[in-house]
Each structure stands twice: as C-alpha cells, then as structure tokens.
Q: What sequence folds into this?
C-alpha cells in the first residue's frame, strides 16, 4: 500500500469519533492491506513504530522536527515554528510548507518504506544522533506529498491523535477478514497473551484463524494481567470459589511482570538510564516531575550485554526494566529457572528496620532519575504470586494449583529480593475473616482469593480472583478507579494551581468509551490540585476527545490517560452523568462525596479503570448490605 493511501485513511479517521464509523473506515483500510504491512499499519495507527511496550521512541522534540521540516522545504526553522504557532499543529504547518514548496522529488513511497525510515530514525544512537535524525526525516519529507507529510510529522511528536482504542482495531480486523465482528473474542484472546496488536494482526493475515488460536505466550511480550473481581462478603466469595480455595495477602505495592531468559542476552547497558532516545523524546519524563511515564524507559536497542535477558513490565505493561536495577539483579540471582515469566507485587522496605513501607513510599521508586540512589534508600522485595511460563512451556493454561507448585519450585520463601507470597488453602468464610484480620493487622491491604482450578485469565476479570480490600470508613467497601476526563479552571486560591475541579469517568467496556461519573471539587489537597495540573497539562484538549461520552463540559478536556483512585460515600443515580445511562429513567451513576485516594497514573491504563459493569455491581451491593 502507498503511504499516501494510508494518509488518506488517517484523514477520514480524523473526521469522526463515532466508534461504528471508525470500525468501518479501519476495516476498509485493512481490506486494502497485505500481510507484510498490516502489522506496521497497526503500530502506525497508534503513532508508533513498534509495539507500545517496546522502548522504541523517535526521540525528536518540536524544535528538531521544525529543523527537519525547514531543511526539507527550504525554510528557516523559525519560519516553521511561526507557522506551527499559527496553526497549532506541527503536521499542519509542515503540510502548508510542503504545498507551497517547489518540489521535483515527490515519490510514491510505500507504507513499508516510510515505516522503515521512521524506524531508522528511532534506532539511531551514539554520536551525531540528532543530526542523523534531522537529515533522515528531512530527506523522507522531501519525497512525500503534503498529506503524508502532515501525518509523518505528527508521529514523532505523538500528536497523531486518531483516538482509536485497541478494541476498535480488533473489531475492524474481524470485519475486514470475516465480514462481521464475530472473530473479536479469538483476536482478543491472542492479544491478551502478547499485548502486540501488530503481531496478532500479521499472524491473522498470514495464518488465518488457526494461526491466532495457536498464539502462545512469548518471553519479551507482556501478558495482559489477570484482574480481580470484588464481592460484598466472605460468604458470597465462598459461594463462587467452592469448597476449597487459595488465599494470599494482598500487598499494597505495584505489580511487576518479570520476563527472564538466560539463553538470551540483555540489550544495552543496564546502568545507562534513561536511554538517549528517551531523554530527548516528547514522551520522556520532565526533569522536575516525579510522575511516571516509564513507557519511554527500557533497554535501548544497542549492543547486547553479558547479562541474561530480563524485562520488567508494570501493570499497564510499560517497560520498567531500567527503573528497578535491584529487581533485575534479584531475578538473575534468585529465580531458579532458565526461562520464566512470573508475576508479583513489589514493595519497598526500610533497609534499617526492615519494615515494609506504605504505598506512598513504595511509589517513590517509580521514577526516572536518581535510580541507583533510590534503590539504596528504598530497596524492593517482590512477592511472587504466579508463574505463567517455565522453560519453554506456556503454563498459563494450567490450573492455579499446578502453577503455584511450579512457582514454589523456582522461588524461595525467604528470598532476599524475590520472595514467595504466602498462600493458604482455605475452606470457609470464617477462614477468610481470620486471615483477613491477620493481614490487616500486619499492615497489608487485604486478601486475594483464588480459585484452585482456574487457568490464568490474561486480560480478564472473572471470579477466579477475588479481592478483599480493607474497607475504608463509610458505606462503599471499595474505591473506584476513575479516568480524568476534564478539569475546571480554579477560582480564588485555586487559580494559582491551574485546576480547581475535576471531571472523572469510568470505562464502558461494551462501547469502548469513557463515560462521566463525577465532578470532584473538594476532597483534594492543594498539593494534589497542583499535581493534577502538572500531570495533565500536556494532555489538555480544547475539544471533547474521541471515545468520551459526556453531557457536561469542563473548562478543558483531558485526553483519557490518567487514572485516579477515588473513594466515595455512595453511588447514586443522577441525570448529569453518562455512566450506565438508563434512558428509561434518564439517569446514570454518580459518586457522592468523592475524594482522591491516590494517583494511579503509573500503574493503570485508562481502559483498566473501573468499568460500568463493576460500578453497577457496587451500586447493587450497597442495597444488599441492607441500606
Ligand atoms: P486492585 O489494583 O485494587 O484492583 O487490585 C489488584 C492488584 O492487587 C493487582 O493488580 C496486584 O497489583 C495487587 N496484588 C497484591 N497482592 C496480590 C496477590 N497476592 N495476587 C494478585 N495480585 C495482588
């Protein structure tokens, strides 16, 4: 396919935010694509040249892009920046300059050719990197027609905002190849195992349905984590779990998925952090910010080291390998397997008193600077609770009890860094209450109850895992993970913070959209308001983002990326909010007296927020408790 054809599809996709139309346009694009380019197209749609979990970044900011655009079309960099300021988008500025320029070199480049050049730009490292990136991009732009120029320029800047979620791509793949959306579950299953839509799409195009049915776990491709359900009481949990079930403490740290392969070597020096590409990338961390986007952080694709291959992924599948050198070392020294994928929860402890620290302390480890210093100050222990892959075999399909046995054979109870999570096999509701109280008195968050005969359900919530969290005072037994959808400008004292109120929503998994559930005006400290402003500044939009369904209009919309854990007294129905909208009553769900518990921007993706289905259950559970 010509890149120009793809660009024309991007133009069409930009004109709509309606999901059905997006699926329809995408499926037409996929019908025109062949198996050699479909994977690349899936990455490009997300503005990437690799799957999102690979730390491959273009490493070009506005000023270097302006330099490349100027070089391509015979303009000064300042002219480009002026035009960019006028039009508000670098792609549009470049398109305008490309249209005006007298050019003889326009060529019909294919998607694969353009992808290859962009990947080359991302992969440059070492001396003279910036010059090489600028001249390669300028040469590429010179050859492209104006519409293609617009989109190519927006890719390195991360401003190619088509607003297409993974479920939309999966529906479109099914529609393109099968004429309807019925293959979505099969595609999703393969995606849950690898998190790599490009890889799944390419396999689907090359090997058909049986090919994707056969997709197994791959070391180096993160698995979408299994998620837990909630229930209102221990009795209800026993009903779901049966006569015999497992219980583990629920540690309040952050989830880590470890990929170890001693037959491969780690790429890049582990100590160089962050990689050069991440330092100059738009997505890269702001030096003054402790908030985390570790996506840009990981092993650079440079020479292999002598160290075995170890990659760490967060709950939202960001590559966090370089943030935790102490965990990497612990895995190499303590895990008794040649090849393995295991999961655990990492918690920081005080090295003097050996006491485990609360979440607010542990989360300080999720940063990009002073890594080694923080590793000394707040060392981590990872409590391993599951094993998914062992020595060449995908064991995620085996029952939990078998996986646990294998986990016990490779991780020690008293490991220094990697330690086996305690597990008890229980039978009754009283057993749960007893263990729960013990866990709480030890400062843990609660319990995780697990079905003994369940496989690992990648990317899925189900009653194979049930979480029991410490109830906060008030009526709701659990918090709601909300997505930040908008902010209100502050009045009075809050003017200085930049934000005076929040509009938050939850995820409607059926429609793949975000629906509003609350305005949060009080319930945040001054410091928290400032932090919201800081982490959301670069995600502000003047128009409603695609996939957001709202009846109210904040001062600024925010691209749905930031997850906040919110505690509320109660869930009520309200005509203002769209969560779980019921046309017969003209109302949706709303949170009463919402307040912020913690920022979860680092460990949950917007799509991992609480779902409408869960909110509905929380709403119904309130009544079960006799309210
Ligand atoms: P929540 O984030 O409140 O939905 O609870 C689920 C999270 O609990 C998982 O994503 C893990 O990070 C964490 N967790 C802590 N202990 C365990 C455990 N023993 N088994 C599974 N997950 C655990």
A:
């Amino acid at each position: 396919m010509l890149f120009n054809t793809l660009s024309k599809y991007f133009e069409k996709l930009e004109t709509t935010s309606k999901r059905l139309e997006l699926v329809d346009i995408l499926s037409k694009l996929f019908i025109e694509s062949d198996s050699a380019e479909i994977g690349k197209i899936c990455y490009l749609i997300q503005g990437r040249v690799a799957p999102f979990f690979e730390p491959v970044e273009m490493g070009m900011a506005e000023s270097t892009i302006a330099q490349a655009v100027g070089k391509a079309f015979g303009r000064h960099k300042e002219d480009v920046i002026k035009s960019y300021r006028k039009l508000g988008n670098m792609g549009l500025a470049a398109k305008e300059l490309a249209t005006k320029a007298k050019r003889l070199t326009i060529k019909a480049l294919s998607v694969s050719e353009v992808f290859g050049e962009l990947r080359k730009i991302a992969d440059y490292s070492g001396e003279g990197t910036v010059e090489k990136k600028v001249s390669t991009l300028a040469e590429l732009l010179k050859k492209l027609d104006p519409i293609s120029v617009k989109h190519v320029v927006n890719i390195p800047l991360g401003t190619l905002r088509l607003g297409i979620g993974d479920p939309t791509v999966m529906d479109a793949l099914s529609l393109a190849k099968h004429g309807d959306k019925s293959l979505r579950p099969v595609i999703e299953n393969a995606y849950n195992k690898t998190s790599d839509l490009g890889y799944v799409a390419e396999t689907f195009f090359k090997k058909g349905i049986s090919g994707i049915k056969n997709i197994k776990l791959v070391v180096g491709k993160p698995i979408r984590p299994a998620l837990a359900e909630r229930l209102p009481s221990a009795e209800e949990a026993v009903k779901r779990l049966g006569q015999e079930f497992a219980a583990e403490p629920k540690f309040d740290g952050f989830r880590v998925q470890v990929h170890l392969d001693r037959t491969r070597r780690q790429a890049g020096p582990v100590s160089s952090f962050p990689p050069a590409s991440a330092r100059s990338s738009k997505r890269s961390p702001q030096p003054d910010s402790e908030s985390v986007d570790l996506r840009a952080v990981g092993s650079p694709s440079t020479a292999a080291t002598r160290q075995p291959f170890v990659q760490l992924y967060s709950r939202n599948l960001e590559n966090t390998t370089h943030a935790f050198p102490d965990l990497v070392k612990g895995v190499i020294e303590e895990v008794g397997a040649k090849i393995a994928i295991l999961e655990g929860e990492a918690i920081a402890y005080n090295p003097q008193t050996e006491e485990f620290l609360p979440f607010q302390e542990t989360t300080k480890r999720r940063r990009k600077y002073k890594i080694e210093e923080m590793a000394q100050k707040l060392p981590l222990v990872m409590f391993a609770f599951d094993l998914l892959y062992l020595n060449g075999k995908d064991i995620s399909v085996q029952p939990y009890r078998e996986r646990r046995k294998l986990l016990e054979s490779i991780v020690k109870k008293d490991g220094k860094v990697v330690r086996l999570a305690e597990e008890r096999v229980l039978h009754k509701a009283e057993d749960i209450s007893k263990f729960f109280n013990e866990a709480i008195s030890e400062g843990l968050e609660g319990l995780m109850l697990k079905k003994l005969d369940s496989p690992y359900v990648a990317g899925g919530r189900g009653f194979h895992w049930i979480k029991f969290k410490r109830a906060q005072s008030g009526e709701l037994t659990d918090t709601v993970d909300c997505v930040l959808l908008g902010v209100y400008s502050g009045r009075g004292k809050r003017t200085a913070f930049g934000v005076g109120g929040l509009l938050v929503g939850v995820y409607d998994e059926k429609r793949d959209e975000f629906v509003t559930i609350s305005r949060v005006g009080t319930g945040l400290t001054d410091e928290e308001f400032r932090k919201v402003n800081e982490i959301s500044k670069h995600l502000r939009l003047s128009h409603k983002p695609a996939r957001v369904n709202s009846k109210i209009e904040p001062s600024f919309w925010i691209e749905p990326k930031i997850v906040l854990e919110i505690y509320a007294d109660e869930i009520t129905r309200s005509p203002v909010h769209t969560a779980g909208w019921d046309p017969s009553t003209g109302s949706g769900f709303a949170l009463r007296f919402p307040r912020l518990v913690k920022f979860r921007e680092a460990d949950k993706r917007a799509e991992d927020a609480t779902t409408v289905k869960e909110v509905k259950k929380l709403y119904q559970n309130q009544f079960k408790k006799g309210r």
In short: The chain has three domains: 48-157, 240-469, 480-624. The chain is about 35% helix and 20% strand.
